[in-house]
Specification:
Blueprint (H helix, E strand, L loop, with lengths): L10 H17 L4 E2 L12 H17 L3 E2 L5 E2 L4 E2 L1 H17 L7 H4 L1 H7 L9 H6 L15 H6 L5 H15 L7 H17 L7 H5 L1
Parallel strand pairs: 1-2
Antiparallel strand pairs: 3-4
């Protein structure tokens, strides 16, 4: 309100989403949340991380049915960042796991492991641990869980640098989903025709695909 410059990731954004979600539920309407991984930061830094987490988590807590701008948003939405996209996908994956209902049963409560270990023992070698340790916890794909010594030996890569490695790996391993040639041709023709009709001709998509 002081400058007219938009600011994202603060408490006002979250409170607005909480109220909007309540109104949508009261009226029984689907709701498209405006809170994705929004941030005012011009860099993939600490500010970008906490502002993005704050807005996206508010959308989850508000019960949004659809959430746009969920990956890649940087500098108030003026640019899209590949590094931020990779980092935001990790936040999305984290929250999806966090908001998935936990299984509470005999196996997850591990009563048998307590009996096996007994007083004064440890759980590292327990049968329950050995069966689950490979995939029992969520693991990040960008964030580091290394201690300082190992992190230093591995090049002291900060989060933005690791995010660069991550998006490049994803791009390298990407395989386009199958699409019928006739449908592909029809889509290309539509895009090129509409571009001309709207007065904004584009280079031929066919030549770009060649």
């Amino acid at each position: 309100m002081k400058s007219g410059s938009p600011a994202f990731g603060g408490p006002e954004s979250a409170l607005g989403m909480y109220a909007s979600g309540q109104i949508a539920r009261r009226l029984g309407l689907p709701w498209r949340s405006g809170g994705g991984t929004l941030t005012s930061s011009p860099a993939v830094d600490y500010q970008a991380g906490y502002e993005s987490m704050n807005t996206l988590q508010a959308a989850f807590l508000s019960g949004a049915n659809v959430c746009w701008q969920s990956a890649g948003w940087l500098e108030g939405g003026l640019v899209t960042s590949f590094e931020k996209f990779a980092a935001d996908c990790e936040i999305l994956d984290l929250l999806l796991h966090q908001f998935t209902q936990a299984d509470v049963d005999d196996a997850s409560l591990a009563y048998g492991a307590h009996v096996e270990v007994g007083h004064g023992g440890h759980f590292f070698g327990a049968e329950h641990t050995l069966e689950r340790f490979r995939d029992c916890f969520w693991r990040p794909t960008v964030a580091s869980t290394e201690n300082n010594d190992r992190w230093t030996k591995n090049g002291s890569m900060e989060h933005a640098a690791r995010a660069t490695v991550r998006w490049q790996e994803l791009l390298e391993s990407y395989e386009a989903p199958p699409l019928d040639d006739a449908i592909d041709e029809e889509l290309v023709e539509f895009v090129e025709r509409r571009a001309v009709e709207l007065g904004d001709p584009l280079p031929s998509l066919r030549s770009a695909q060649a």
